[in-house]
Design brief:
Radius of gyration: 18 Å
Oligomer: single chain
Number of strands: 14
Order of helices and strands: EEEEEEHEEEEHHEEEE
Number of helices: 3
Helix content: under 10%
Shape: elongated
Largest sheet: 7 strands, mixed
Strand content: 35-45%
Structural class: mainly beta
């Protein structure tokens, strides 16, 4: 079954993860939670070769007559997300998920725990604990490569857009 493992002599670990058999060395210790306060604009190299995060804020008033057209063409990539910047009331954090972190999956505010969303996306447990998320406290805005929150959705009334991008908006910079 997925998640089952066998420890062999010499610290060798054999583990089944979603149809794959993984063989490696046993890790000692536990992963530590990471959290960093972000200021704008941001261009940050993420640890574990996760890519380069870029955050900018754009004023939609400056788009003029092209505002409606631009809002209709919001990127659908899981590596580029637009958020209504004015809906952010606290400080923006780049962090690894904690048990109490929630992401809004519906416009009415209903959501799920981030670790559950990662599990459903078949992210192995050891990677779930190191997954980077963009959050406002324990309200997660974006799980790169997985999904964004509906709680910060851009609308016609949006005055400022937070543009978040990893590796130019494409998986592994492609």
């Amino acid at each position: 079954q997925t998640g089952k493992y066998l420890t062999l002599p010499e610290g060798i670990l054999v583990k089944k993860q979603y149809g794959e058999l993984q063989i490696g060395r046993e890790c000692s210790g536990t992963e530590k939670h990471y959290e960093e306060l972000l200021e704008f604009p941001v261009r940050k190299i993420l640890p574990d070769e996760a890519g380069v995060l870029t955050l900018t804020v754009e004023n939609t008033v400056e788009w003029g007559e092209k505002k409606s057209e631009k809002l209709r063409s919001i990127p659908k990539s899981t590596y580029t997300k637009w958020f209504d910047y004015d809906k952010i009331k606290g400080v923006l954090l780049l962090k690894t998920p904690e048990a109490e972190d929630i992401i809004s999956l519906y416009t009415d505010g209903r959501g799920k725990r981030v670790l559950e969303v990662l599990k459903e996306a078949k992210v192995p447990k050891e990677k779930r604990e190191r997954q980077w998320v963009l959050a406002e406290g324990n309200r997660v805005m974006w799980i790169p490569g997985i999904r964004g929150s509906e709680g910060y959705r851009v609308t016609d009334e949006t005055k400022q857009v937070l543009v978040a991008m990893i590796d130019g908006g494409n998986e592994h910079g492609r």
